[in-house]
Amino acid sequence: MEELESMMYDRVNPKSIDEINYRHGINRGPILDQVDRSAPLYSRLIHDIHRASYQDEILFHGRLRNFNYRIQQIFQQHAECTNRLMMQCETEVVLRKLPLIEADHARALALLEEDEAALKSFEKAKRRLTAAQLEREAACHAMEGVEEEAEFSEFHAPALVKSSYEMNTVYQRLRREFEFVAQQMTMAKDRLAKAGKEREKVERLVSRLYCRTQNSVLRTKYGFVKVKFYRVEDNVVVVTPLHWGGTIFIPIDEILAYEEMYKEEECFAMVDEDEQERLRLETRRKEMLAEERLCRKFYIEEIVLYVQERKAMANAEIEMREYIRQLEIEEMKTKYSKMVDDRNRINDKAARRQEIKLGKNEQHRLHREWRGIKEEDELSMKIRENERAEALAEALERQFDKYLADQAMQGKISADMEASRLAERLREAQQIAAEKRKAFEMKMLSHAEERKFASGNEGSEYPDEAFDTP
Predict the structure, then answer these.
(1) Which residues form a coiled coil (predicted)?
(2) Contact 426, 393 (CB under 8 A)
(3) If residue 177 lies in a helix (H) or strand (E), which one and from where to where?
(4) Residue 281: which pLDDT band, with cuts at 50, 70 and 90?
(5) What is the pLDDT of residue 71?
(6) Between 415 and 5, the higher pLDDT residue
(7) If you average pLDDT over residues 405-418, what whole number do you get?
(8) Do residue 52 and residue 127 come from a single domain?
(9) d(Cα 239, Cα 236) in Å, to the nearest integer?
(10) What values do phi and psi take at 263, rounded to 5?
């Protein structure tokens, strides 16, 4: 039994068995005949034979699977070839129709080009007509204004002629006064220039006089000092410090040099202080712009969140309406089934009335479906308009940030003005979106009224059998 299980092949076909033994390196026939079953290696030999048979079985199934896959590929290629042969049979018909289609296509292209040329000519003529109408209106307004001015001039001509001499006299007097004032201005400018030159000359003398004046407070390298007296022989100023005792003899030229140095230091300090103040204001302005940008970002995020909530609410509403519609359909099906059951128990006239009633119910159902589709379209249009407004707001925000960056590089930021301008543009965009939405709603309302009117006309085909439907 173990020998038969280890062989796994029919012994009447020795060729295949020899091939398997050759592949796996096992010569089973002589080995099994020569080895004793009680030998220690007999079980190992049986195990090797089983493993070789198992591997060969796996290889066999793998080849079989590959053959099946290749057969499927061949079938697919055969199907494609068959389809192409069927299409080849229709090639002659297509080739006969192709010149006609090409001629129609060329004619259609020519007509399209003619239509485009006609539209362009129409647009040009429309623009010229609009420009001519505007020019005509402007000319009419100008002519009316000229006529009014002419009447006014004719009415006031005597008074103008009478007052022209007086006006000429006043003009001559004003001209003489202007010439006199111009001469005085020229003389004043000359005197101002001379006074400036004299001031430059006496400025150093004034400084020397101040240093020579008794009890004058001066700044020196020793601090603030008070002048006691001036010694003319060697141009020395005798001073005493304000905060400590002593007497110091300082040449007047040294005091003047220190005074000039202190003035320059004060000028530099004032310039530094102005620069620090400018930097502080610039930093504060940047902080304000950053805060404004964050506020705008928060506002945009709030708008996005609001739109998302509106979308979620709209989706929930659509689902609820769909659920209600399904319930109505189920209820209508129940009524239909009841009517069908009752139809066998009524006469022909009642059956006719029932058919008309079913037709009216079908019309009402179609009208409800159409109304639901219209509401869904309106809601989708509103969502689309909100998305467009959101995209427009984002584009305006990016444009505003780019403009602020450019202006920041040039040092010409005007945040309030740009913010107001951007707010106006945003309001205009929202107003345009609201107008478009209102126009769409009016259009849908008109379509609904037309549909209602049409459904009413259809229902009037049987005036004698009209009745209310659920």
Answers:
(1) 171-205, 271-333, 379-439
(2) yes
(3) helix 91-212
(4) very high
(5) 93
(6) 415
(7) 56
(8) no
(9) 10
(10) -65, -45
Report d(CA 248, CA 238) in Å as an integer: 6
The CATH number assigned to the domain holding 212 equals: 2.30.30
Range of the domain at 451: 277-465
Q: Which two tokens stand for residue 258?
A: 């220190």
CA 359 to chain centre: 50
Contact 237, 251 (CB under 8 A): yes
Partners of 241 in beta bridges: 225
Does residue 194 sit in the same domain as residue 251?
no
221 and 182 inside one domain: no
398 phi and psi, to 5 degrees?
A: -65, -40
Beta bridge partners of 230: 237
Q: Which two tokens stand for residue 199?
A: 């001031």
- 133 has pLDDT over 50: yes
In a domain, 108, yes or no: no
The total of structural domains in the chain comes to 4
DSSP, collapsed to helix, strand or coil, labels residue 213 as coil
Is 208 found in the same domain as 180? no
The sign of the dihedral angle between the CA atoms of 23, 29, 33, 38 is positive
Task: Choose the final residue of a domain: 202, 221, 245.
Answer: 202
Q: Mapping DSSP to helix (H, G, I), strand (E, B) and coil, where does residue 464 land?
A: helix
